[in-house]
Design a protein that fits this description.
The protein has about 210 residues and is mostly helical. Helices cover about 75% and strands about 5% of the residues. The longest helix is centred in the middle third of the chain and has 28 residues.
Length: about 210
Amino acid sequence: MTVTTRRTQDQRSAQTRALLLRATTQSLMEVGYANTSTAGIAKRAGVSRGAQTHHYPGKRDLIVAATEEMFSNFANELETLGAELRAGRLSYDGFFDAIYDGVLNGDWFYSSLEIIVAARGDEDLRRHLSPLILDLHEQFERTWSKTFVAVDPKVVTSRVALNLVMNVFRGMAVQAVLRRDESYFTEMLGALKAIIAVHVRPVISD
């Protein structure tokens, strides 16, 4: 006998929101902020315009919600990597390699880059996104504080060292848009890991 489980309204709504946010991220990745539209997002998501406007009335609402989800997902992934490093299941090099791969090949960085550039000239969008980036940085720093200790905090704190890593990774990912040279970036990644290792060491649980 086949048992059919009917989804609740909340479940259907959650799925619709998930489809819309995923479509927003895909649109930002593929066609950029300027060419992303609510109609295009609804089409990608396979939902009606009525459903789209019910959950997210305008483009800004979709962008802000998608950004919040992207940031949250990446922060959670980073904390998972930190936990693996602390448990001794991931090496120092593997930790940084995985983060850089997430920046370069994941969907969050280039999508958020489109949004950040747009926010530079859009005060309303910037006002809605600023709390999200501050929350993201706070989540990062909670991971840093649990995962690394400074060799000499009077010289470089673990917070500064790891925030520096993230900023370098973002710069490398931007450059990688036009410079397709894997060895060039591999060499820089190795140099960065060597420099950071002078100033911080991972916290390994017993």
